[in-house]
Amino acid sequence: EDQVTQSPEALRLQEGESSSLNCSYTVSGLRGLFWYRQDPGKGPEFLFTLYSAGEEKEKERLKATLTKKESFLHITAPKPEDSATYLCAPNRDDKIIFGKGTRLHILP
Amino acid sequence: GAVVSQHPSWVICKSGTSVKIECRSLDFQATTMFWYRQFPKQSLMLMATSNEGSKATYEQGVEKDKFLINHASLTLSTLTVTSAHPEDSSFYICSARMIQGLSYNEQFFGPGTRLTVL
Q1: B51-93, pLDDT tens digit by residue?
Q2: Does the beta-carbon distance from A98 to B43 stay under 8 Å?
Q3: Shortest CB distance from A43 goes to which of B46, B103, B109?
């Protein structure tokens, strides 16, 4: 059975305090892994696609990495506007399997 | 690029009525669109996958006669919640998957529709 586990469930950081979010997955027929950001009351916003182990992608203060069983979203020197829920989403041919997300709150 | 819109953004209806939600890909063609439901503080749950010109594929436990999906064109899919009841109140989100170049399977999401059934 496909499983996606994100940790921690929630994370509070001071502005400028770097950290990492974890996504562990077991998905059959994997075709890449997506990261999305979701703000309250809005649809997910696409951040990254990672296709193979060892791949890294960066966007502003975010960097996503991928291994065969895990993906990490590193956030460097975050700002309050980075507060959101970050969703890990391994992709199969037919659908995305969403994790429950990590609620990130950056304190000014 | 890759913008998906939904209409309406919120709707309140009486129990027993039907509600239609539209999902449009504005700047790309989407042969496949997906409908999700999200309850407070939970992740997105896939309801169904629709391919242009064919019947939707529903996830286990989703009533196809209650959640009618039509994908009549490469830029439009609709979800109709028939005979809505309070337990159908939720946040409904659509996504569209483009087939273009190397980015052939990312899904881009609409802003969501908040449905409240009284």
Answers
A1: 888 889 999 999 999 999 998 888 999 999 999 999 999 999 9
A2: yes
A3: B109
